[in-house]
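Take one record.
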Amino acid sequence: MHMPFGAALSGREGADMALTDPLTGLGNHRRFFDKIDRLIADRSDDPAPFAIGILDLDGFKPINDLFGHKAGDDILVQVAMRLRASMDGHSTVCRIGADEFAFLYPLIFSEEAAAEKARMLIEILSAPYDVGERTARLSASTGCSLFYSGDETTEILVNKAETALYHAKRSGRGRVVVYTREMEEAAKRVTRIEQALRRAVSAGEVEPHFQPIVDLGTRRTVGFETLARWTDRDLGPVSPAVFIPIAEERGIIGPLSQLVLRKAAEAARGWPKELFLSFNLSPSQLVDQNTGLHILSILDRTGFDPRRLEIEITETGLMTDPASAEKIVNDLRSVGIRVSLDDFGTGQSSLGRLREFHFDKLKIDRAFVSSILDDRPSEHIIRAILAMCEGLGMDVVAEGIEEEAQASRLIEFGCGGGQGFLFGKPADAAATLGYLRDSFRGASRAKAV
């Protein structure tokens, strides 16, 4: 029995629609994968290279929020038109996500040529977009990968492009990164560290170390900042600069932070009562509304007085979700926990945040302290911060003090608190207890004399 011509046509149309993005008219995710599958099959006997790339619009969500979804859709249609017009007769561009586009270049044979093509696309997309009577500007980041061998599948090729895109976005806006073997090794190392870290957190093997915070005038220790330290049985010592970002990205930071706070509170419980414990919260914890409950539960279980705890948060952490951060900060302050703004002057917050959040303390970033002796702008910035904090009734601690001359200059400017290698390096709980015994024994002898 013969199928009517109209029915056959509508079947083809239906199949075509299933492979098409309805907003832009470009191919969709399925069409992109299908095109790569076909090209790999065509070149199975002679695997000549070809290039693919994934392009992500930087900052599209804020534009969408500012101008509205209708305007956002109009911009996406304009992006699609520009990308389609830039393709030659052999190449393909598809829309594979909300603000993600993918391209396939069958006749690109080298990493240099792929990067050059991707830079051209980014340049094309950088021209202004019409949004009603206004205009908007966009940048884009792109990750590319090349097919070299018949062993590679479409999925492997796309995963490599996504890994390259991730590196592009981490290195700033408007960047192009082509996947390399080094990236593959780096990705494998991150996975090894992640797996080892998950096991270490479950086994309670991450330890708190404590760095003294002092009164600059008297050099008396007034508290300690808690810093996470981890030595793995196979990997050896892993720097916090490596494992903290991995914990943040892979969703391990919550359990890791709770483990370190519990151990720190248990250690600090035996310190002299006038000493406070300072503890850092990561940006993702300031988005999680359970953060406050976790902290209070740990303090309750360990019997540590909330009034002896200071929570340190960064400007970047505040900006992730200001409303969520504000609620968590208010919940903590309501039980007597003090809140400190860390790394001040290096983040993306505004001075208005200082008024809105009512911080108890501000920490001047080490970048300013390290150059205080030979850089006039750093000196003026520190003076301005100290004058502002005095007006706002906030305590101040300068971080990263390594030289006596830096401490003297800060005292001269009226800075009350200090932290850095000049006063002590981070040490484990046992060494910190020994440090305190010596310090307070020395202070008692000085009083007796």
